[in-house]
Design goal:
The structure holds two protein chains of two kinds. By secondary structure, chain A is an alpha/beta fold. Chain A is built from 13 helices and eight strands. In chain A, the strands form two sheets. In chain A, strands 2-1-3-4 form a four-stranded parallel beta sheet. By secondary structure, chain B is mainly α. The chains are: A alpha/beta, B mainly alpha. The structure holds iron/sulfur cluster (2 copies). Chain A: This is CoB--CoM heterodisulfide reductase iron-sulfur subunit B family protein.
């Protein structure tokens, strides 16, 4: 499997240019450290995140189709999206364009009015940052490049909702040995274990953080996040590794809110998996944007001798 | 079809008799609670079709009431009254009044798709929840939920410029829902960040709120989307037998 995806089209999405800036920085830095090439999609548009589908799901499909057309026009057959929301939406668009006549019609109509070609399902494959690293470098490749092992760091790997659900939009998952699993995802565990981390057995890997209503129904989100945090602590984790800017920001925000509103303080730190991997590859805290997180992990990293 | 259990055992449908004898047997006290017989005449026979006509609700007819969706549901675990399986049942039976009783919580679905993952019939219950929230608003049973206000704020920025700027979505959402930006926890959050962030990034974030990020040559796409949205809204209202003029 290794050696795939050496050079891919990169779709950062709006979140990575805003609150998820540290994820953008660390993803690019890790790519560089691993000699993988990212070419940003030219003039991309927002994928619609979790909101546009609630106005109309077919519009979401069009928004993603436009980005896939750009990848195709730039000569790529693979687009990498580190944000779970973007990844999910691109995958969902592929599924809907292949299976739903109505979605195809709307996409065709909007594309022609917007003045670009209509994307045809199957021309571009969407992968997540986890696939990108797993398939191009692999665990052995990571082990060979580790300069600053995460040894002694206990990590709860948190994948969230959109990386695994709903199952039908991820045809490459659940294909047995070697493939990713929707029920028991393990790619992040594999990557961080290769970087030396001690992964804890975290039962809430794919539980929901309430990200869809993080501001509109804060009490629900705070309860869900608190559950994720206290369970990670009970599992002995020092840090929760994330792979999605919405989950990441939600965890950080509601950790503070749980303390302020519910009086429940938790001390587990939250870092993007690319930040942890970057540190293992010998990058500095600054290079992976540790200071851009709300959840200040500097002390933890010092304590573990990682910086 | 399972019995219409929940509404039968509601407090207002129960009658307690202090002293009651039936066929010479004293059934008062704890055992004297009866469910009064009643007739239901207020069906909306079109209810399933109305939900099915809204985006996300298309496959509601496939439901066979196994309960996997509710069993898997994130929000149900926090609040047992949040019950997608039950709502789908009410919709399919046309029990509009019963459905409307839960109007204030249906919008709380967090779109985790656990129901959709678990559903053996490809009902896509997450979509049904969204369709039902829209239906409640369109029929005038509920004001716009905060979640819908957020979706609208977010989407209108995407439709206008092709991209969003987090800060602007946040500010506009707080303004529209009448919340203060100066809540304890938000202040604590921002203060923590300001002491750590590099100046260059702060400047970049500040600039983003002045020069809003946008996708180049987006105008034609924006116009096409606007036209589609208007059409869609009219179609939704028509499907519910509502005056299309009310569409914004
Ligand atoms: S998507 Fe909504 S209804 Fe479905 S399980 Fe999640 S919260 Fe429940
Ligand atoms: S899981 Fe699907 S079939 Fe079962 S009750 Fe829920 S919607 Fe109906």
């Amino acid at each position: 499997m290794t050696g795939k995806h050496k050079k891919v089209a990169y779709y950062p999405g709006c979140a990575l240019e805003g609150t998820g800036h540290a994820y953008n920085r660390s993803t690019k830095a890790v790519g560089k450290a691993l000699d993988l090439d990212l070419v940003e999609l030219k003039n991309w548009n927002c994928c619609g995140a979790m909101e546009v589908k609630n106005i109309d799901p077919k519009l979401q499909t069009y928004l993603s189709a436009r980005n896939l057309t750009i990848a195709e026009d730039m000569g790529f057959d693979t687009v990498m999206a580190p944000c779970n929301g973007c990844y999910h939406n691109l995958k969902k668009a592929e599924y809907d364009l292949a299976n739903d006549e109505g979605s195809r019609e709307v996409t065709e109509r909007l594309s022609s009015k917007a003045g670009h070609k209509t994307y045809e399902a199957g021309k571009v494959e969407t992968i997540h940052a986890l696939d990108w690293i797993k398939d191009s470098i692999g665990e052995e490749g990571i082990k060979a490049r580790v300069k600053n092992s995460l040894k002694g760091l206990k990590v709860a790997n948190y994948y969230g909702c959109m990386y695994t659900r709903p199952r039908h939009i991820f045809p490459e998952k659940d294909k047995g040995p070697g493939s990713e699993s929707t029920l028991q995802p393990h790619f992040m565990d594999d990557i961080l274990a290769a970087a030396g981390a001690e992964n804890v057995d975290y039962p809430l890997k794919t539980a929901c953080c309430g990200g869809a209503h993080t501001l509109s129904d804060s009490d629900t989100s705070t309860k869900l996040v608190l559950n994720l945090l206290t369970t990670a602590e009970a599992c002995g984790a020092d840090v929760i590794a994330t792979e999605c800017p919405t989950c990441h920001t939600g965890l950080e925000m509601h950790q503070v809110r749980a303390e302020k509103v519910l009086g429940r303080k938790t001390s587990v730190k939250i870092l993007y998996f690319t930040q942890l991997l970057g540190i293992a590859l010998g990058l500095s805290q600054r290079q992976v944007g540790v200071q851009e997180n709300f959840s200040d992990a500097t002390d933890l990293l010092h304590e573990k001798g990682l910086v | 079809m399972p019995i219409h259990e929940k509404s039968l055992i509601r407090p207002e449908n129960l009658v307690t008799h202090e002293h009651l004898e039936l066929d010479g047997i004293d059934v008062s006290g704890h055992w004297s609670t009866f469910i009064e017989s009643r007739e239901i005449t207020d069906y909306n026979e079109a209810l399933q079709d109305e939900i099915a006509a809204l985006p996300g609700g298309e496959f509601i007819h496939r439901c066979w009431q196994c309960g996997s969706c509710t069993n898997a549901c994130t929000v149900n675990a926090l609040n047992p009254d949040f019950n997608p399986r039950y709502w789908i049942y009410l919709i399919r039976m046309g029990f509009e009044d019963e459905l409307v009783r839960d109007k204030d919580i249906i919008w709380q679905c967090v779109s985790c798709n656990k129901c959709t993952y678990a559903c053996p019939r490809d009902v896509f219950p997450e979509g049904v929840m969204k369709a039902t929230s829209h239906w409640l608003e369109l029929k005038g049973y509920t004001p716009k939920s905060p979640a819908m206000v957020f979706d609208e704020e977010f989407s209108s920025q995407v439709f206008a410029t092709g991209k969003i700027e987090d800060g602007k979505v946040l500010r506009r959402f707080f303004a529209r829902t009448g919340q203060s930006l100066f809540q304890d926890w938000l202040i604590a959050l921002v203060r923590g960040l300001l002491t750590q962030l590099p100046v260059s990034l702060l400047m970049k974030m500040g600039l983003a709120s002045v020069f809003h990020p946008r996708t180049r040559n987006w105008d034609a796409a924006s116009a096409a989307i606007a036209e589609y949205v208007t059409e869609r809204k009219e179609a939704d209202r028509r499907a519910l037998g509502l005056d299309t003029q009310g569409a914004e």
